[in-house]
Amino acid sequence: MLTPYDEFPVHQTPYPFSRVPSTDYNWDEGYYYGILNPDEKLLLATGFRINPANDVISGYALLNVAGRQFTTRFSRCWRRDFNTVIGPYRMEVLEPLRKLRLVLEENESGQSFDILWEGSAPPSLEPHHYDESRGRATTDQSRYTQAGTVKGVVRLKDREWKVADGNWVGIRDHSWGLYAERPPLGPAARWLSPKQKKGNQRALRLWTVFRTGAVSGYWHIHEDADGVQGRFDDVFGAPFGGEFFRGWTDEKIELATGRHQTELAPGAKMIKRLEVFLRDTRGRDWRQIIEVDTPPFMPMTMGYTTGSWKDGGNFHTYHGSEELALEWDEFDFSKQPTLYTPYGIDGNSDTFAAAMGFDYTKPICGAEHLARITTIAPDGTSMVGAGQVEMFVNGPYKPWGLE
Q1: Rounded to whole angstroms, what are the CA distances from 335 to 68, 72, 82, 291?
Q2: Sequential DSSP letters for 285-317
Q3: Which of 43, 102, 382, 383 could share a disulfide with 115, CB 3.0–4.6 Å?
């Protein structure tokens, strides 16, 4: 069938946009937005993903305030309406790659917002994500990231936050293609050949999107169990990448290398302080000081993993209504590590969660940190702002003494 997007001369296949070039249930497309303020200890994470093979679009609005986490989830079938609207939720593209509006209208959950998100610099296309097993592509995905400004209002029951200039920062990413395995969709593992043995494996992922004054951008660092950066056989692959922008057009700074000194919170896999030393392609040295004083949020309630929905499903599964499925929950994650049990499953059966380092039978910590960030330019100028830092630790990591 035709979609509104077929009006534009941007086709990449000889088919309408309603038909994607894959029947794999792991082919999806979606957005992530972070609206954050470290002074308020508040991070609103919202977005959605579309699974064309299962004809599902599902989204979320996760509000974490000092570790108390409230999530509203919504889902419907996709091809009945190609607009980026799911019940009370919608994303409006006002100016491509620059200005968008995010709205969650008043609904039964008691959570709502109306946010104008505007890029403070152009988006950055990350190195392509690719992985395969026994000759079959298991990840083949593009992603871009962007930092920006946010204005509007966020509400939760009887609380309200005015989002304006100052310490409020917006970040986002947009990704599409094949991305990892998303149980419960897909064949049972017992009928498949054993997974191909991998070469060098990633143990640590650090990924940051930020805005500090006039400078914004992203970087990522991937290391093995010995703390060595290298090319890894997994979904993230590239050992290092990143770029900064000064304003929208003033200067683009391509980063060449990066290293970190990380201080963890006592007794937990959570960042307390992170110092990052970066060198750009012109040989200039940059530094960032990243400080975290509030618990990270748990991404498992968003919808990515099996059991994140109350019926035991996830983003990509059907939730009982062609038109709208809506649910919400609340958790207290203010003390971490903490136990988290997915809905309706044995947590160890979720291979995607296992790949991300989650073992639900043991206390775990969140992966997504709300941080104050200071960027120190090569001339010594300091710029203060905020960002989101993602940290995954998969297995042993010797530099931190993690066995």
Answers
A1: 10, 22, 41, 18
A2: EEEEEEE--SPPB-GGGTSSSTTSSTTS--TTS
A3: 102
- Tokens linked to 75: 């889902």
Domains of the chain, residue spans:
25-177+197-400
CA–CA separation, 213 and 207 (whole Å): 20
- Beta strands 368-376 and 285-291 are antiparallel
Buried b / exposed e across 122-137, counting CB within 10 Å, b at 16+? bbbebeebbbebeeee
pTM: predicted TM-score of the whole model, two decimal places: 0.94
Question: Running DSSP on this structure, what letter comes out for residue 110?
Answer: S
Q: Which pLDDT tens digit goes with each residue over 235-283? A: 787 899 999 999 998 999 999 999 999 999 999 999 999 999 999 999 9
Instruction: Measure the CA–CA gap between 396 and 403, rounded to whole angstroms.
Output: 4
3-state secondary structure of 121: coil
Q: How far apart are CA 32 and CA 49, in angstroms?
A: 9
Class assignment of domain 25-177+197-400? mainly beta
- Residue 275, sorted as left (phi over 0), alpha (psi -120 to 50) or beta, turns out to be beta
Place of tokens 């940059």: 286
